[in-house]
């Protein structure tokens, strides 16, 4: 849903930049704190940023002046909390604007507000709520990643409606128009992103379970040995878990 370079009126471009800036600054502090306290998180932080870059670079034509694509921000929000994604998402958008001509510098604030701020917070809220109601990690991941995508599309639609209200029906009419056109591509993309998230977290559960435990995504078990924590002398490493995310161990 990147809004193209120069598409927004200058006042709107400046306004959205001002709105996004505090979240990005807070996100930079959150990333610095995470890396300082847990240096082993650096690789997974980079992977979360790369995942967002790759997914959001898949560009499908949509409303004039914008595009439809997955976002990938839900995964990072689930792993590291939304503030971290405010910085990572903005860095991704900046690189895409400079290297791929995807989005733009004048619209960076608007795109960051929708994809790096609103999307991660809504996705994380959906993840926490679904997990509290169902107790199922993978269902919560699906909801979080799908709704992070949809929230980004809704925000972009509202941004465009504010900038270009309908001559007769104003903001409301323009919002309905933009939401309707985006929905044709974005709803299927959101469902696909949710399913991709399930596959991603299944892989993480199988290959990076101690890290998920440390991040609080999975509960600790008596035999867990967290990263940088040596196993007690005279004991053998715990057998790998086959937790599939729904609380069952096989």
Automatic annotation (TrEMBL):
It is a multi-pass membrane protein. Keywords: Cell membrane, Cobalamin biosynthesis, Cobalt, Cobalt transport, Ion transport, Membrane, Transmembrane, Transmembrane helix, Transport. The keyword Ion transport applies. PANTHER family: COBALT TRANSPORT PROTEIN CBIM, PTHR43627. Its main location: membrane. Gene3D superfamilies: 1.10.1760.20. The gene is cbiM. Residues 227-242 have a biased composition (Low complexity). This is Cobalt transport protein CbiM. It comes from Goekera deserti.
């Amino acid at each position: 849903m990147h809004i193209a370079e120069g598409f927004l009126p200058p006042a709107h471009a400046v306004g959205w930049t001002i709105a996004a800036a505090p979240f990005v600054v807070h996100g930079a502090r959150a990333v610095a704190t995470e890396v300082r306290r847990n240096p082993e998180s650096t690789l997974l932080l980079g992977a979360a940023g790369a995942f967002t870059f790759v997914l959001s670079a898949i560009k499908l034509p949509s409303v004039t002046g914008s595009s439809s694509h997955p976002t990938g921000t839900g995964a990072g929000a689930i792993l590291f909390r939304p503030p971290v994604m405010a910085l990572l998402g903005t860095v991704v958008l900046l690189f895409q604007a400079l290297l791929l001509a995807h989005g733009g510098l004048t619209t960076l604030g608007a795109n960051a507000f929708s994809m790096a701020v609103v999307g991660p917070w809504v996705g994380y809220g959906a993840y926490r709520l679904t997990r509290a109601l169902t107790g199922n990690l993978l269902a919560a991941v699906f909801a979080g990643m799908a709704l992070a995508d949809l929230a980004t599309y809704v925000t972009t639609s509202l941004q465009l409606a504010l900038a270009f209200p309908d001559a007769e029906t104003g903001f409301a009419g323009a919002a309905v128009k933009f939401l309707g056109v985006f929905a044709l591509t974005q709803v299927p993309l959101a469902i696909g992103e949710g399913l991709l998230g399930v596959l991603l977290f299944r892989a993480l559960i199988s290959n990076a379970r101690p890290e998920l435990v440390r991040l609080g995504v999975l509960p600790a078990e008596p035999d867990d040995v967290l990263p940088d924590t040596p196993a007690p002398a005279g004991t053998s490493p715990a057998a790998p878990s086959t937790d599939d995310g729904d609380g069952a161990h096989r």
